[in-house]
Amino acid sequence: MSTYDVTSYKHDVENFISDLAKLAAIRDNERNNAELMFSRLQAINSISRGLSAKTAFLRYMELSEVETDLAIEQRRHALTPVIERVSYAARQLNYLHHGKTIARPVELVRETYGDFYGPDFFEFIPFAVIDNAVKYKLRDGDIKIKTHDSGIDGFVDISSFGPAILEDERERIFQQGSRGKFAIEAGRVGSGIGLYHAREAMRSAFGGDLLLVRSDQSNRFNVDGVPYDYHTFRLKVPLIV
Question: I need a labelling partner for 48 at 20 to 30 A (CA). Which of 40, 88, 112, 226 fits?
């Protein structure tokens, strides 16, 4: 694991723990506010899931350090419904980024319940892709997640408006440390490692892929001088037939 990966991981975990500490600090006059307490419990649950995804990422990185370990882990497959893991990742992101609630919820459309085999760190992959959409989406924009299948492969499409992606960036954004020109110009904070690790894990551990399958310019508009298009990132997961 690179120093940059470790630093980014540490930063994310510290933010989650900081959020948990703030939520745990309950004043005496708040204890009888059932609505407030329920809201905080939901937030704590979502942050816990976020920490779970980060732990899954760490497991993947540790196994990837030694190829034989990853090969052994690939043989320890467990049957898992695609929708279960994707839904879990989507719920993690109802509360994220320093305790700020997403302006509009992630919408999940379920059209497949296909099963797949894979190591127990899969959940960090949809988490990373959805997290990427959250970081770059419009303030009041939607993120739509749709699961469907071909009978052989399961697909998870994550769609939202985000800074335009140039034609020569469609593959480059999956390279380690790489970010799109307009993503940078939009002033959004990003590391350029989330999509990279998600694709590498899909390919090396699950025999699948992560692709940018749509970058629609037909509804392009500008926000503070930055062009925005509608993008769809697709996870391709081989199913158990």
Answer: 112
What's the predicted TM-score (pTM) here? 0.73
Neighbours of 97 (CB within 10 A): 15
Tokens of 72: 């052994």
Residues 124, 54 contacting (CB under 8 angstroms): yes
Please give the distance of CA 137 from its chain centroid, rounded to a whole number.
13
Q: Which strand (E) or helix (H) includes residue 83? A: helix 82-92
Tell me how far apart the alpha carbons of residues 90 and 76 are, in angstroms, rounded to a whole number. Answer: 25
Residue 129: pLDDT above 80?
A: yes
How many residues appear in the chain?
Answer: 241
Per-residue pLDDT of 85-109, as tens digits, reads 676 666 655 555 434 444 444 566 6
Question: Is 183 in contact with 168 (CB distance < 8 Å)?
Answer: no
Q: Can you give the residue ranges of every domain in the chain? A: 3-238
Q: Which residues pair with 237 in a beta bridge?
A: 154
In contact, 79 and 117? CB cutoff 8 Å: yes
What CA–CA distance (Å, rounded) separates 44 from 20? Answer: 6
The span from the CA of 236 to the CA of 154, in Å, is: 6
CA 35 – CA 8 distance, rounded (Å): 34
Beta-carbon contacts of 117 under 8 Å, excluding residues fewer than 6 positions away, are: 77, 78, 79, 80, 240
User: Does CATH number 3.40.30.10 belong to domain 3-238?
Assistant: no
